[in-house]
Amino acid sequence: MNSSNTEGKNLHERLAQARENAGFSLVEATRKLGFKHYQILSAVEKGTRNVSAGELILMARLYSRPLDYFFEANIPSDPVPLWRRTAGSDVQKEQRQFLNFLENYSRLENLLGLKRRWKEILTSLDSDDFIENGFSAADKLGADIHKRFDLGSRPACNLLNILENTLRFKVIHLDLGEGLSGASIVDSALGVGILINLHDAPWRRNFDLAHELFHIVTWKIFSHEEIGDGTRKTKPEQFADSFAASLLLPKEHLLAALKEIAVNQELKLVDIIELAKEFGVSSEAVLWRLVNLKKLKKGQVEKILGDAEFRNMDRGLRRGLYEEHQPEKFPQRYVSLACRCLMEGKISRGLFAEYMEIDRSAIDDYLSAAGYAVKNYEKIAAA
To answer: Does residue 134 contact residue 237 with C-beta atoms inside 8 Å?
Structure first.
């Protein structure tokens, strides 16, 4: 959702707009900020009551804005991510958190003079390639990306690392609100961002990451209108699923694993679940991929997925995998860049605390736990 340009606005107008763009009602923001009555915040936003420095800091944190936002002369409109969500769900709060992370991450990269590499992954295909047989094009694109970045026989194990460290994508895991699955964005100032639901199962997160990668790769091919608002399975969304299946379940490696696991060439339901666990995807993804590879028929898969006993067995065999793969909110590269900028004097301790969402009093303990010490920044040689 675009926010209007804030050029020429006074502080109180900026505060009101920041609250609205972050998705907070006056009453809700009043409660979270600790004001006794909503009329106090209302007076601040009308300009009839001054705001203290402490109150401004609290508002900036709540609305996911840097302090500079409230004072700079010209603030452009927010870029618009692509979302996957259910109808009626609101994305404002999560969208502002997502964009704030991307803004902070971009500032750290700029301070360190780091180049972005995401343009390397954009496809040379165009819209015509997806008109006649879009699913085939998406399938081939997934296979091409798998080969190009050498994702190996079990791509789910390597994909996040490749995107974050080789291509320098900005990937964050957030506790998303009801009905929200994820988002992605390509922006000239911010680079590439992907948002994944922190509390989804690991196999779901893997597939969502690959799904969003399709939108990044084809960002210049499909318009936001063609993709939709994320509440419907439009053609581009279906292509994204096909791409993700091809990328995470490469034909050669999947068929080799299938041959290895099937005793006497007989495929059992438990084999499907074991394959899904091995490749880090859902059993449903494996089943539909085998339909695509003409190893199973559509009717068979629909019957299997409608079987309650199969679903129970699937859950039972995967029990415990949720906790084993719980990701951190911020990617390690982001943490490293923030620590490096602090140690090299490029950002203040206050800004570091803001970026890492910790109290200033906890900074030294945080640095120590992260393995950062002053002696590590002594110059030993020319690079």
So the answer is: no
